[in-house]
Amino acid sequence: MAYEYIAIDDPVFRATCEERNQKDYVLVKPKDFSKVPITLPNWAPEPCCLDTRYQKLDQRIKGMEIKPDDVWLVTYPKSGTTWCQEMIWLICNDLDYEKAATVKLHARFPFLEIGGIRDLPPGMDPFQEAISMASPRLIKSHLPVAFLPDQMWTVKPKMVYVHRNPKSVAVSYYHHSVSLHEYRGTMDQFIRSFMKELEYYSPYHRHVIEYHHLDYQDNILHLRYEDMKKDLKSSLQRVSAFFNKSYTDEQLNALAQHLSFDTMKNNSSVNFREWVEFLLEKTNRTDKLSDQDYLFIRRGEVDGWRRELDPELMKELDEWTKRKVEDPKHMKLFE
């Protein structure tokens, strides 16, 4: 087995995990990571918080065949993933808005390991859909570097990695977990668990730093959520150049409008409205259907955390980052 599954022994977690609907959370430690081309000295991956369901997929993902023309988008959750999926798909598919409107994003750009963290409706198998797609395949994942397929490091398909300010991630991840993962705790509980690295795909800082230390030639592009919000057109130009695509200013302006928050929020091909409605109805929370905090595409803000976090929690999050980021030159990744 390539992984060791370790029960979470944190006493607060153990005492409250069932009432918060996190009883299946587990720490997963990679045993073989020698193929990962990382430039951090004496590097060894820390256990990642996942779900017991991940055992169904761990070996299949690790041994997955990688194709040279694959396109991978990797993020820590709530870092602008859906926004970037739509952007990358359109740039790689010659701005085919018609197909983008008629084929759901999850079918165009499948979420590789979602079946390893939650139960899915009968017949839904994103992993199988991903490996069966016609080339070029566009694939989304939140997995840390040590969990990606071994062939990634020899084939080296193009990869885009996106990161976002930790306070924004924490608040957005809480709301996402309430609506889509049926999380039943408070925001304070969630963020304290997040700082203990006990939410899916944590540890957060290691996730970001490790992807920024891959020896991956010129086949990885790093994007920052806040930079995209500040100047989306420049980001579109960078992504287009990365994929050897050339578009006019008029085309890029139209793409920027298509990717605006209001357009994305109301775009049924990307807003996962049906999935959110299904989950809220399944869990008797239909009163939340019109609550903006329960939408998949919620607010799309850079500093909305300022309204939702109390000063003490803001301070704790900043101190947490200072503790976790040992090298000062990495601090700019978390501004």
TrEMBL record:
InterPro entries: P-loop_NTPase, Sulfotransferase_dom. GO terms for molecular function: sulfotransferase activity. This is Sulfotransferase domain-containing protein. Residues 68-327 form the Sulfotransferase domain. PANTHER family: SULFOTRANSFERASE SULT (PTHR11783). It comes from Aedes aegypti (Yellowfever mosquito). Belongs to the sulfotransferase 1 family. Keywords: Transferase. Pfam families: Sulfotransfer_1.
